Amino acid sequence: MHAMVLQRPGASLQLQEQFLPAPAAGEVLLRVLACAVCRTDLHVMDGELPQARYPIVPGHEIVGVVEALGAQVAGLRLGQTVGLTWLGRSCGSCSFCLGKQENLCDEPEFTGCTRDGGFATHTLADAAFCLPLSDFQAEDPEHTAPLLCAGLIGWRALRAVGKETRVLGLYGFGAAAHLLAQVATAQGRSVYAFTRPGDADGQAFALSLGVAWAGGCDEMPPQRLDGAILFAPAGELVPQALGAVRKGGVVVCGGIHMSDIPSFPYRLLWEERRLSSVANLARRDGREFLRTADTLRLRARTTRYPLRDANLAVADLRQGRVMGAAVLIP
């Protein structure tokens, strides 16, 4: 097998030939069909996540085919196409796991962060954390891969802002926001897209997906928002978003890492505005979202890269040159 390996934070990915691993009990070996590149991968590469181990094979938005089954694996079959996400394993015994909050597990494992991920031709996965895909999704791995984190984190964040949020702002219009915008508009919500200042192409892209308005993240929307979701990892956007939501509105931070939030006047939080975050993704989120995505025939806009060009894909994502999602194809 071949893998793009990160030896240490700040280094470039290196293409390596490795022995094909055998799955242990409860694991499966997946042949990777597609792996999307997520902003969280940038945080892993930059050493911004303290739980990360090195060397590591990044990548956690994986569509793969089951090529080998370890002992005691039930519910999966050889040749089945499945999805693998950021949460690669939970302990199952801490108070959070027992309380149906496995996304907050005290001893989790994360795909592409604490266990090798999908920037490779093959990867091992805990069978219990592989998500079944519909025929529609399995037939198009490239456009399904971004659903497995960008789509999922957007779905969990949408649940966090609540059904009462009918006018929704999305700050940072990348892979997650372009999928969530399609879901939210299908639900009858009005979506306001906030891009990097001056990003006319990004704003045109957002408008092409049916949003009601698109502008820079330094602008105020033409009306008050019921709620906002921040996908951009920029802490300075938190007070900006709080200033844009109505009384009683909610701002949800959807990233795993964000720069420091600057101090801001209490009046921006007053009048029962709420500020919260979402952390990781539970398997229930995955099953719910994939059913919804299948019903909507949801498609990601993608730019395809061969596996060996993973460094180029990462650079393009970092510089904002990707509309939608970058996807590696082994």
Query: What is the structural class?
Result: alpha/beta
Distance from first to last alpha carbon: 10 Å
Shape: globular
- Strand % is 25-35%
What is the chain-wise order of helices and strands?
Answer: EEEHEEEHEEEHHHEHEHEEHEEHEHE
**Number of strand segments:** 17
Individual helix count: 10
Low-confidence sequence ranges: none
Rounded average pLDDT: 96
The portion of residues assigned to helices is: 25-40%
Radius of gyration: 19 Å
Main beta sheet, described? 7 strands, mixed
List the helices and strands and how they pair.
Layout: E1 2-5, E2 14-17, E3 27-37, H1 39-45, E4 61-69, E5 81-84, E6 87-89, H2 95-98, E7 109-110, E8 122-126, E9 130-132, H3 135-138, H4 141-144, H5 150-161, E10 167-171, H6 175-186, E11 190-195, H7 200-208, E12 213-216, E13 225-230, H8 237-244, E14 245-253, E15 274-277, H9 283-296, E16 302-306, H10 310-318, E17 325-329
Parallel strand pairs: 10-11, 10-13, 11-12, 13-14, 14-15, 16-17
Antiparallel strand pairs: 1-2, 3-4, 3-8, 3-17, 4-5, 5-9, 6-7
Helix pairs in contact: 5-6, 5-9
Task: Tell me what you see in this structure.
- Strand 16, helix 10 and strand 17 (325-329) form a beta-alpha-beta unit.
- The protein has 10 helices and 17 strands.
- It is 25% helix and 27% strand.
- The chain is globular, with a radius of gyration of 19 Å.
- By secondary structure, the chain is of the alpha/beta class.
- The strands form 4 sheets. Strands 3, 4, 5, 8, 9, 16 and 17 form a 7-stranded mixed beta sheet that branches.
- The model has no long low-confidence stretch (mean pLDDT 96).
